[in-house]
Design a protein that fits this description.
4 helices, transmembrane helix, elongated, 33% strand, 5-stranded mixed β-barrel, 12 strands, two-stranded antiparallel ribbon
Length: 239
């Protein structure tokens, strides 16, 4: 087959087009490659639902440390107050310097009705720490000397001298802001339907309308003798 001469003849126009393509194609290829690589480098975002505490029970530190094997590696909820434990340098600042020592430390949890012998539980996790100068300490995420409802995973750490325990931080709610189970006396607690049927729980009466979800059951619910009471500043059912 004979190719027409106009398709095989080198002309000035074809030379210009070839030169332009020779210059542009590497840049076009480089741009396409970097754009594709940026798409590959984008992190995959996996949405993980918040862990639900076992039995949705609000515990105390005294409870879990009294029988720790029952809660090992479980997601639990604790109603606690917090304190910081700091370590600071000991340089002499001098009379004209307000502060010159640096400090760092961590957050510990205590039961709200803490007594002298009540144990403490260290709270661990990313951005759970305190640091700064000795006259200006800043804590991240969780503040000391506050009351919280904290959700976390209870862990045992083994040592040669015996085990210790800590709580891996997951989430928190400031009790002063909103806690439907917080109470100061039993008169604040009422019974509510906790699972849309026969399951019952105790809740602060101010949150009853929001949380109570009655539903007609296909079975007859037993009559329970449990009474809502305020125990450790938590509304709970007691036989």
């Amino acid at each position: 087959m004979q190719v027409p001469s106009q398709l095989s003849t080198v002309t000035t126009v074809s030379k210009i087009i070839a030169a332009i393509l020779f210059i542009l194609l590497p840049f076009v290829g480089f741009y396409a490659g970097t754009t594709y690589q940026k798409q590959l480098d984008k992190p995959f975002i996996i949405l993980v639902p918040s862990p639900i505490p076992k039995n949705n029970e609000i515990l105390t530190i005294f409870q879990i440390l009294d029988n720790p094997t029952l809660y090992l590696d479980e997601t639990i909820q604790l109603r606690v107050k917090t304190k910081s434990r700091l370590v600071c340098t000991e340089r002499a600042c001098g009379p004209d310097i307000e502060c010159c020592n640096t400090c760092s430390g961590s957050i510990y949890l205590l039961d709200i009705d803490n007594t002298t012998n009540n144990p403490q539980l260290p709270l661990k996790g990313e951005n759970i720490s305190c640091s700064g100068m000795d006259c200006n300490i800043t804590c991240t995420t969780i503040q000391p000397n506050e009351e919280y409802l904290i959700t976390g995973i209870f862990h045992q750490i083994d040592h040669s001298y015996g085990p210790t325990y800590e709580l891996e931080y997951l989430s928190h709610t400031n009790i002063a802001v909103s806690d439907p189970f917080y109470c100061t006396n039993s008169n604040e607690c009422v019974t509510y339907s906790s699972d849309n049927c026969c399951g019952l729980g105790a809740i602060n009466q101010d949150y009853l309308e929001e949380y109570n979800q009655p539903q007609i059951c296909e079975r007859v619910c037993p009559i329970l003798s449990s009474q809502p009471v305020c125990l450790n500043n938590t509304c709970t059912l007691k036989e």
